[in-house]
C-alpha cells in the first residue's frame, strides 16, 4: 500500500528539518515547503524530499504545494501574519480534501493571552478546527535550544543567564523531540484529530535548577540572574535584526512564565513520539560548543 504524501511547511526550521528526515526514514513521500532555495533546502533535497518554493501569503503557491497531499505539518515562524497564513493554508487544505493537519501552536496560546502572537496562535487553532480538515494541535513549552540562543554568549563570557522568568518552572524540550511527536501524529493521525497536546521535556525546573545543570555539564559556575521584563525587552530589540513584534511576544510570555503558565510536565514525547525525551544534561552535552564560544547567535545581555 502506497504511503500518503505529506507536506511539511517550515521545512528548513528547527522542527521542520528533523520532521522531513524522520518521515523519509520511515518511507513516506515528503514535499518540503520552503521560501527559497538555499543550503538547507538543498540538504533536504539530497535526502529525498521534493522541494517546493512558496509563501504562506501567496495562496496560489500554497494550493500548488498542497495538491495531491493527504497530510500537512503547519509550522509558521514566530512573526506577525500568523492568522492570515492560517486562513490561507486552511483554504488550500480544505480544497485539497486533506485528512489531517498537525499545527504548531504553543503552550501559552489561549483566549486570555496578552501576547499578540500567543493570542493569534489561539485564533489559528479555532480557524483550523472550523475548517474541518483534521486539525491536531501541538503546544510545546520553551525549546531547549532557546537556552543557548538567549544565554549562550553570557554564559560563555560571564557564567550568567540573564532571563526574566522569575522562579516558576518549565521543562525545556529539544526540537528534535518535538519533531518526533509531529511524525508520530502525521503517520497515525486518526485517533488524534481534534486533540491538543502540551509537549515538554523530561523535567519541570526553575531557572536556578537549570543553571545548576549547566554548571555541572559545562564544568563551570553558571548563575541565573532574574532580569526585569522591561529591561530584557529593551535588550532584545537592540539585537541586530531582532523583530520588535517578537520581543513584545517574549516579554508577555516571560510574564506568563512568572505566572506559572509554562509549568508542566507531560509524557507526550514518549507516548506519541516513541522515545523518552532528552534530558537537559544530555542536551547540554550534545551542544556544549554553543554554551562555551563567545559568538553564539545572540546574547541576552
Question: Can you describe what's shown?
Answer:
There is one protein chain. This protein is of the alpha/beta class. The protein folds into 2 domains: 5-141 and 175-199, Rossmann fold (3-Layer(aba) Sandwich), CATH 3.40.50.720; 145-171 and 201-263 and 278-292, Alpha-Beta Complex (UDP-galactose 4-epimerase, domain 1). 46% of the residues lie in helices and 15% in strands. It contains 13 helices and 11 strands. It has helices at residues 16-25, 39-47, 59-66, 82-96, 116-130, 145-158, 175-187, 207-218, 229-237, 244-258, 268-273, 280-286, 288-292, and strands spanning 5-8, 29-34, 50-53, 71-74, 100-104, 135-140, 160-163, 169-170, 196-199, 205-206, 223-226. Strands 3-2-1-4-5-6-9 form a 7-stranded parallel sheet, with helices on both faces. Helix 4 (82-96) links the parallel strand 4 (71-74) and strand 5 (100-104). Helix 3 crosses helix 4 (82-96) and helix 9 (229-237) packs antiparallel against helix 10. The longest helix has 15 residues, at 82-96. It is globular and about 55 Å long. The termini are far apart. Residues 296-301 have low confidence and may be disordered.
Amino acid at each position: 500500500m502506497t504511503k500518503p504524501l505529506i507536506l511539511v511547511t517550515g521545512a528548513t526550521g528547527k522542527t521542520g528539518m528533523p520532521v522531513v528526515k524522520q518521515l523519509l526514514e520511515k518511507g513516506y513521500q515528503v514535499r518540503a515547503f520552503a521560501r527559497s532555495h538555499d543550503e538547507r533546502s538543498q540538504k533536504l533535497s539530497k535526502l529525498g524530499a521534493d522541494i517546493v518554493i512558496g509563501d504562506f501569503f501567496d495562496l496560489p503557491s500554497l494550493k500548488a504545494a498542497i495538491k495531491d497531499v493527504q497530510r500537512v505539518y503547519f509550522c509558521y515562524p514566530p512573526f506577525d501574519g500568523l492568522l492570515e497564513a492560517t486562513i490561507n493554508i486552511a483554504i488550500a487544505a480544505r480544497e485539497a480534501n486533506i485528512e489531517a493537519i498537525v499545527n504548531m501552536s504553543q503552550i501559552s496560546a489561549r483566549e486570555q493571552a496578552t501576547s499578540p502572537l500567543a493570542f493569534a496562535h489561539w485564533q489559528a487553532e479555532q480557524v483550523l478546527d472550523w475548517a474541518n480538515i483534521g486539525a491536531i494541535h501541538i503546544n510545546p513549552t520553551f525549546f531547549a535550544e532557546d537556552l543557548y540562543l538567549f544565554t549562550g554568549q553570557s554564559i560563555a563570557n560571564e557564567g550568567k543567564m540573564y532571563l526574566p522568568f522569575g522562579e516558576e518552572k518549565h521543562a525545556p524540550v529539544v526540537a528534535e523531540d518535538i519533531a518526533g511527536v509531529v511524525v508520530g501524529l502525521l503517520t497515525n493521525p486518526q485517533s488524534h484529530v481534534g486533540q491538543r497536546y502540551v509537549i515538554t521535556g523530561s523535567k519541570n525546573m526553575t531557572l536556578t535548577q537549570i543553571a545548576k545543570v549547566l554548571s555541572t555539564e559545562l564544568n563551570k559556575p553558571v548563575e541565573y540572574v532574574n532580569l526585569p521584563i522591561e529591561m530584557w525587552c529593551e535588550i532584545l530589540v537592540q539585537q541586530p535584526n531582532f523583530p520588535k513584534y517578537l520581543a513584545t511576544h517574549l516579554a508577555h510570555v516571560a510574564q506568563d512564565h512568572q505566572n506559572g503558565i509554562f509549568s508542566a510536565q507531560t509524557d507526550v514525547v514518549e507516548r506519541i513520539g516513541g522515545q523518552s525525551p532528552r534530558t537537559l544534561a544530555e542536551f547540554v552535552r550534545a551542544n556544549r560548543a554553543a554554551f562555551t564560544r563567545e559568538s553564539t547567535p545572540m546574547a541576552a545581555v
